[in-house]
Amino acid sequence: MSVAIHINMELAFFVFLNFLHFGICGFINEGFAQYGVELSVFSGRSSPSWTVDRNNPLYPRIAARINRARSTRMSEKLGYSGFVVEMKNPFGQRVFKTVGAGTNPRLELLLLNSSPYPIERSVRRHVIDTVRRSVMYRRKSI
To answer: Contact, 83 vs 26, CB < 8 A?
Structure first.
């Protein structure tokens, strides 16, 4: 009877190690199944938010950029302060990244354009103007 228990323990340990290996490697290699995007722009009402999944045509470009990007500080000014991106993999694990206003212009515009529904024209214009000003400011300082 002790031999059967020993074999079952070895089997359980083997299954556990495989779960850890494929779970962690799956998190890294499979990438994220979807991205929850929040446009942080309003202080008195809820900010627009949406999900970007593999069906979104911008998904591959967003995935490539957001996975390489570091979180950047959100702007403390009123109005557009950046994006909060929640990344979820197929196992339900979550990681949050922030993309502060004007810190990563290409990624910010990709995220803005990934919305499946129209964003208010004035809000959209405000975000684009903020990103454009940050690019112009960087060019002047070089």
So the answer is: no
Within 10 angstroms of residue 82's Cβ, the number of other Cβ atoms is 25
Residue 92 region by backbone torsions, left for phi larger than 0, else alpha for psi between -120 and 50, else beta: left
- H helix intervals, the chain: 2-29, 59-68, 105-113, 121-141
**Which region holds residue 82: left if phi is over 0, alpha if psi is between -120 and 50, else beta?**
left
Q: What residue ranges do the domains of the chain occupy? A: 1-30, 31-141
| In contact, 62 and 35? CB cutoff 8 Å | yes
pLDDT tens-place string over residues 83-139: 999 998 888 899 999 999 999 999 999 999 999 999 999 999 999 999 999 888 766
Q: Are 19 and 86 in contact (CB under 8 A)?
A: no
The helix/strand/coil state of 2 is helix
Based on C-alpha coordinates, what's the Rg of the chain?
A: 21
Q: Is residue 42 within 8 Å of 97, Cβ to Cβ?
A: no
Pair of tokens at residue 27: 């998190």
